[in-house]
Amino acid sequence: MAKSGTRGRIELQVEDPWLDRYQVMESCSNARLKARLPVLGWLPRYRLTWLQMDLIAGATVGLTTVPMALAYAEVAGLPVQYGLYSAFMGGFVYCIFGTAKDLALGPTGIMSLLCASHVHHDPIYAVLLTFLCGVIQVAIALLKLGFLLDLISHPVIRGFTCAAAFTISVGQLKNILGLQDIPHQFVLQLYDSLRRIPESRLGDVTLGLLCLSLLTMLMRMKNYGQGAGDLTTQSHARILLRGLATARCALVVIGATAVAYACEESGNGMFTIMGSTSQGLPPLRAPSFSEITSDGEVITFSEIAQDLGGGLVVIPFMGLLESIAIAKAFASQNNYQIDTNQEVFAIGLTNILGSFVSAYPVTGSFGRSAVNSQTGVCTPLGGVVTGLIVLLSLVFLMPLFCYVPKAALAAVIISSVAPMADLRGYQEIWEVGGVDLVSFLVTFLASFWEMQYGIVGGVAVSGAIHLFSFTRKKLSVNSSIHHS
Question: What is the mean pLDDT of residues 366-383?
Answer without folding.
Answer: 88
